[in-house]
Amino acid sequence: MRDSWRHALTIDDSWVRPLPQRWWRLDGLLAVLAFAVSAAWTEGYRAINALARDHTDLRLQYLYILIPCAALVLRRRFPLTTTAFITVAWVVTGQLDGLLTTTLGIQCVYLLAIYSGTAWCRRRILGAWVIGGCLLVLAGWVAYALMFKGYDGPPGSDLMPGWLGMTIILVLTNIIYLGGVVLLGVLQWRNLRRRLELEEQARTIDAQAAELRTQAVDAERLRIARELHDVVAHHVSVIGVQAGAARRVLDKQPEAARDALTGIERSSRSAVAEMRALLGTLRATPELDRAPTPGLEDVGTLVADYRAAGLAVDLQVVDGRPECTCDIPPGVGLAIYRTVQEALANVQRHSTATTASVVTRFGRHCEQDYAEVEILDAGNARPGRAGTGLGLVGMRERVAVLGGEVEVGPRQTGGFRVRVRLPFD
User: Fold this and answer.
1) Are the CB atoms for 196 and 13 separated by under 8 Å?
2) Is the full-model pTM beyond 0.85?
3) At what angle do helices 162-249 and 124-148 cross, to 10 degrees?
4) Closest Cα partner for 62 from 33, 40, 79?
5) Where are the domains of the chain?
6) What pairing do the DSSP bridges indicate for beta strands 368-377 and 355-365?
7) Residue 290: φ, ψ to 5°
8) What is the pLDDT, as a whole number, of residue 368?
9) CATH 3.30.565.10 given to domain 295-425
10) What pLDDT is stored for residue 284 in this prediction?
11) Which residues of the chain have a pLDDT value below 50?
């Protein structure tokens, strides 16, 4: 219960309320306005003879009003000091000119001081002690006035004497007014903190959203770069090899040249179709005639293109679980296709190998279905034909996105090995 009260009154909170810009101008205007209202209120009381028994010099009366109003200039910068000072000024004024403290103008100044101490104090525990002390001083002064100055009002009614009625009125009035401004100050402090926290959270969310958008754009750019590399590297390589073969046999073997030209035509059409499909993803609206994305079922056609280009490729399918093959996600099928495409393009461009093997496997490991492809060759690296390595980087990135694993490197028995395993549900 004690902790809940401390939390409700923000006693244990270490947050510091920031000062507004040019706070001294705002509070200076407030002090001038408070003095003008208090003076007008005092003259209104004087006009209806409510201060007829007050024989204090008029200049002193305005001095008693001016002092607490002037202290309001520092109510935000030094809230607890201002509250304590105005409390002392209130008690001293009550002792020197008790009737003046009955005017609503100077009472509002004191209530504003209590509110400012509650709403603006930075050290909440110290603020609780200072505000509580000020309220105790006020209560003690009221009790002193009732006990020692006596009661000179009406005698009372049949149910209650006058002094008791005045005591009840003073106690309830001070509880309602002072308790109300303390509660208002606490609520205003809590609401401002909550609003600033929400603004900070909104800024954080905006920053994270912008970062996520940037990451999404980067990821899409990398994906497109990988696709472009795979499409261009494969088809241009195949077209170049087939064009060279056609040139060499054009005069002696027209049929073989015709087959090579047919392969060039097929490769160029396939490249155009894949480029259109890829560039279609960059448009605002998709085209209806976009070519389908290549997948697992297109690996055979891909291997046939390389065979036609002069690379003897052996394709094998090891299906440990026949039901898996029908449920391969498109993303996994595309990754396998691009892996075979990149690996065979590297064999053709950077290796002395004339043969290669492609093995696709499907199975289940650790309660997880997987698709695997392995490309092997027995050649050596051609001197002066080292690539940029972007293809292998793109392969690793594609596999990492799908949560798979990749092994790329030379074999101990000679040649090169690429193995990719991709899990799927």
Assistant:
1) no
2) no
3) 170
4) 40
5) 2-150, 295-425
6) antiparallel
7) -65, 140
8) 85
9) yes
10) 47
11) 284-290
